[in-house]
Amino acid sequence: MHELLVLSSSLSKLYWVISPQLALHIPDGFLSLPVSLVTWVVAIGLIVMALGQVKSEHQERTVPLMGVCAAFIFAAQMINFPIPGGTSGHLLGGTLAGVLLGPWAGSLVMTVVFIVQGTLFQDGGLTVLGANIFNMGLVGTFGGYYFYKALRSTFGFNSWRGTSVALAIAAWTSVVVASLICAIQLALSGTVSLGIAISAMLTWHVLIGIGEAIITVIAVSYIWQARPDLLYDPPKRSSLPRPLVQR
Amino acid sequence: MAPDISSYPIGLCAFFVFATALTVNGRWLTWLIYSLGLSVLILTSRITWSVLLKRVAIESSFVGGILLGTLFRGGGSTLWQWGWLRITTEGLMVLGSVTSKTLLCLMMLNLLVLTTSIPALLHALKTLRMPSLLIAIIASMYRYIAVLLEEFDTMRRAAVSRNLMSNPRGQRLVIGNMIGALFIRTYERGDRIYQAMLSRGYTGVPPLDEIPPNSKIDRWALVSTLLLLLLGQAVYLQ
Description:
The complex is a heterodimer. By secondary structure, chain A is mostly helical. Chain A is 68% helix and 2% strand. Chain A has a single domain (26-230), classed as Arp2/3 complex 21 kDa subunit ARPC3. Chain A has eight helices and two strands; from the N terminus they run αααββααααα. In chain A, strands 1-2 form a two-stranded antiparallel ribbon. The longest helix of chain A is centred in the last third of the chain and has 33 residues, at 194-226. Chain A is globular. Chain B is mostly helical. Chain B folds into two domains: 1-116 and 211-238, no CATH class; 118-207, no CATH class. Chain B has nine helices and two strands; from the N terminus they run ααααββααααα. Chain B has a two-stranded antiparallel ribbon. In chain B, a hairpin with a 2-residue loop joins β1 and β2 (85-88). Chain B is flat, with a radius of gyration of 24 Å. The two termini of chain B are 37 Å apart. The chains are: A mainly alpha, B mainly alpha. Chains A and B meet through α1, α2, α3, α5 and α8 of A and α1, α3, α4, α5 and α7 of B.
């Protein structure tokens, strides 16, 4: 309880940039039983497989590393920034997590973020947790990562120009596709009709996606320059113009 | 096998939320029965109403999105029409159903979080067979959220004091770089935490001082909640 108080006091201090927003987080009661059930089954499968993969990759380091990275995504999601066009939005971070940590660890981190938001902060419901994990963990992170990797191979794997183009396209697409799938889920549940759900979600998330793309590219460019070895797929060539030699 | 740490409150909550949210639209009597049970719980929990309502009010701002869908929905008989906009009986039914389901679930979950400490919640999840690796990750994440937000705020203050956040373009650039810098710090922090954990004999879940064991009252509460949930569904069984 004490930590929660510390957290809420630090939240109120940061209020002008950091304010809780509900973006793709569907609350309880919006999805019907069949949709919830199917997405929960897929989400549980994803969690089990991701846990296994991440544990074999990071061994004992899994808990601290995944824990702080999840806290990192959580913190990054709370920061508001201006989007070209006049509104403000915040990062969803799916593609960013995938690019930095890889598809399995990335989707595990996103899943943990949704579980904590749903159970401890009531941002997104329990029955729809499966759907939220499906939309942003599986589609946004897993799909976003492989889309980014394919694009990066096409545009130039080791050049920053190719990587940044791949990042921007993958980040924008992952947000838009995730919102599209969310709209379809809402329509399948009979909460909103398909046309309205799609047009409302798309017009909003096409803009959000632009913000997502800009911030993802800038954040990765910082890491590309400072610590390229921390990227999940580090560039082959060193970022230095020529290798260091002793003279 | 009786669980050694009380997992009944969280089980009770989960049953309630799932039963409420997954009820078919339009079953008003079910939700009326559930809300009676919920208000008994809230009254016995001695929570201040204003605290609960404030939390629920912030979290229920999304109901507006559903309102939009209601205005354009067909089906049922039309009550009011103005050009493209029309309100139908079916639209109103969906709006009312979704709103009441969402409010009931939010109240229940807020009640759980306001009355139960986070370590107790995590231990309860463990007795409910959530993988312990996942719980350990959640616990360590929860510990570091405040730390990382603090670090963000430090960087933001540094940028503001250098007048870098004056226009939107600069703000985007600074925030993007902040996120990149924070990731590098986070990754290195993960390594340091790992070393510190090893040197202190870490077991996975934060230690607990006082967790009330399962008592008869807990069992009673769980059974009566289940009966209430079944009663609510049975009203519409013919």
